[in-house]
Amino acid sequence: MKTALRASVFSVLSLFPGAAAAEFKVCNQTFDVVNVAIGQYERDTFETSGWWTIGPNQCADVITTTLRARYVYVFAQDVFGKSVLTGSVPMCVKPDRFEIPGETDCLIRGYIEARFHEVDTLKSERWTLFLTPPPGS
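User: That's the sequence. What structure does it adopt?
Assistant: Structure tokens below.
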């Protein structure tokens, strides 16, 4: 039917003074429903969590507290399990909803290793990440 999409990413700092907005939001501008997982540094360790299901032209508030860490890690796949957004940072996921402490030894601990994309939020308190289809699609 249609070819798999590779997401290009465009990040925008969200500055809405006084607005009650998510602190890290992911907006899906592809033509597919995507499932999103995030990784972030929590206290003394990394933690991954997911899934947020986001329809085309919809957004999800994936972190609702003020960002404390400069980097947030994002992995996205379509509903068929095809990667939409990947990166180079290995972290753990599992098929159903999850919160997983630590990012190493995924297979040994019974999880799946996924490659997360590192998002530099430039130490801002709010950030919106847009998943977009590749040019020409």
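The chain has one domain: 22-123.
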